Amino acid sequence: MKEGKVLKDLEKRLEQLEYNQMLLLEMVNPEKYPFNMLIIRECISKQEVQELHKLCERLTEMYEEQKAQGLVIFTELLTLFAGQLNYKLDVVETVQALYRQNLHKALMKTFLDIIKKQ
Question: What is the pTM of this model?
Answer without folding.
Answer: 0.81
